[in-house]
């Protein structure tokens, strides 16, 4: 290689390129809209966003085209997901549903406050979108109503529908599990919040029977509850995806191996905390 003398221009001291790892953006609490009948971002919402942040490289590599949140509430989670993904595909489309009209309106405001376009639909689970988005959702996020309550509180008008989860807190969760296969694309990923009382290992078993792999992406205890985020993906024969994701946590097999331990921790309730 021939070395040439630098021109006058290049002799000037050059600014050094500073390579920094960019801090991923999430929704700003002060830009999250609110309404008395809408669930405010809370520990469970933050746990879900933390799980998305922890898995952001997998999410970005996924190059998602369609993302959906079921039960969007204030819009904090879907807006954060959109911001986390903003550095990959600018044409990614974001959808959100809620059974509560005020929540849909609040999500529209929150996403607009962050410069995000999100299509929000008032519907039960995702019923109005199921045909349109059949097998095309690349990222599905859900923080469902998971608190064990009397069955007649499930789906009640207003804020009660935010937490009322019926028997074992599983009524709405089980309805959502039933539509994951219908919605998720071949490489699609689902992230769902669950409470220890919802029996996360049984949720994983239900999904396993439907052909999905799963793992606990993140878990955290608060004074009141022990929460986790379960990640689901379509199981492939090669276990390719399973291998891909193990860098951020244990695979289902690894996790199931520890189920008695996890369950016993959860049964003890608030005695332990690993947040
Ligand atoms: C625990 S809040 C979560 C809100 C928001 N995603 C967050 O993490 O802050 C649950 C949300 O699910 C909504 N929801 C309850 N039942 C639903 C159903 N059957 N279909 C759609 N949304 C539902 C509630 O209105 C509420 O906004």
UniProtKB/TrEMBL annotation:
GO molecular function: nucleic acid binding; protein methyltransferase activity; S-adenosylmethionine-dependent methyltransferase activity
Keyword set, alphabetical order: Methyltransferase, Nucleus, S-adenosyl-L-methionine, Transferase
All copies of domain Methyltransferase small, residue ranges: 63-147
GO cellular component: eRF1 methyltransferase complex; nucleus
Keyword Metal-binding: no
KW Transferase (keyword) present: yes
Broad class of the protein's primary localization: nucleus
Pfam families xref list: MTS (PF05175)
Domain of life of the organism encoding this protein: Eukaryota
GO BP annotations listed: methylation
Gene3D superfamilies named in the record: Vaccinia Virus protein VP39
Subcellular location: Nucleus
Family label: Belongs to the eukaryotic/archaeal PrmC-related family.
Protein name (database record): HemK methyltransferase family member 2-like protein
Organism (species): Carex littledalei
């Amino acid at each position: 290689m021939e070395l040439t003398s630098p021109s006058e221009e290049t002799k000037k001291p050059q600014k050094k390129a500073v390579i920094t790892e960019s801090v991923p953006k999430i929704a700003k609490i002060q830009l999250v809209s609110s309404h008395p009948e809408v669930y405010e971002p809370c520990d469970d919402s933050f746990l879900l966003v933390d799980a998305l942040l922890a898995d952001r490289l997998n999410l970005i590599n996924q190059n998602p085209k369609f993302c959906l949140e079921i039960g969007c509430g204030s819009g904090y989670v879907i807006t954060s997901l959109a911001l986390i993904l903003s550095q990959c595909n600018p044409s990614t489309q974001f959808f959100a549903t809620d059974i509560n009209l005020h929540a849909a309106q609040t999500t529209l405001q929150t996403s607009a406050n962050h410069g995000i376009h999100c299509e929000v639909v008032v519907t039960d689970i995702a019923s109005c979108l199921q045909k349109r988005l059949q097998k095309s959702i690349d990222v599905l996020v859900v923080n469902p109503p998971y608190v064990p309550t009397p069955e007649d509180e499930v789906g009640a008008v207003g804020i009660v529908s935010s937490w009322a989860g019926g028997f074992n807190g599983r009524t709405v969760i089980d309805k959502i599990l039933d539509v994951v296969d219908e919605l998720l694309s071949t490489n699609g990923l689902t992230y769902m919040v669950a409470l220890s009382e919802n029996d996360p290992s049984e949720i994983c078993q239900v999904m396993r029977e439907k052909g999905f792999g799963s793992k606990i992406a993140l878990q955290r205890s608060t004074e009141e509850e022990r929460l986790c985020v379960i990640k689901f993906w379509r199981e492939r024969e090669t276990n390719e995806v399973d291998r891909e994701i193990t860098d951020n946590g244990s695979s289902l097999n690894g996790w199931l191996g520890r189920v008695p331990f996890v369950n016993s921790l959860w049964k003890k309730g608030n005695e332990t905390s690993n947040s």
